[in-house]
Write a structure and sequence with these properties.
The protein has 136 residues and is mainly beta. The chain contains 1 helix and 8 strands; from the N terminus they run H-E-E-E-E-E-E-E-E.
Length: 136
């Protein structure tokens, strides 16, 4: 009988915690001249505080270009709460960045732009990501 009560308590706790989790995720990719595949993703984590995690990558970077990520966080009504951007050193093929987000509970949607730019031969390219909340 004690095992059932304990199992019931643990199940209730897990269900209660899952109801308060906010999860966002979105990704996209495309083939681009000179760099192979340009990939971008945006997701969230609450490990160590609420953060937006972005990844921007290319298959190759022969042009010594740099990778850049821009994100915009919006509330439920489409109002821009804040924007962030970050840039990787020239010549790299992947770039992951964590943006710490205060007042994360207000965020309803995240837009991302994942760029490869600044090369000497190939044109700048961008892939866009868009996310929305799937649980509250």
């Amino acid at each position: 009988m004690k095992k059932r009560k304990l199992l019931g308590l643990v199940t209730a706790m897990v269900m209660g915690m899952s109801m308060s989790i906010v999860a966002f995720a979105g990704s996209d990719s495309k083939d681009v001249d000179g760099y192979g595949t340009l990939y971008g993703s945006v997701s969230t984590t609450s490990v160590g505080g609420s953060k937006v995690v972005t990844v921007t990558s290319v298959t190759k970077n022969p042009d010594n270009a740099y990778l850049k990520t821009n994100i915009e966080l919006q509330d439920l009504y489409g109002y821009t709460l804040t924007t962030y951007d970050a840039q990787q050193d020239r010549g790299k093929t992947s770039f992951a960045h964590n943006f710490k987000v205060p007042h994360f509970d207000d965020v309803a949607k995240i837009y991302g732009a994942h760029n490869v730019q600044g090369g000497r031969t190939y044109r700048a390219q961008v892939v866009y990501t868009s996310t929305s909340s799937i649980a509250r």
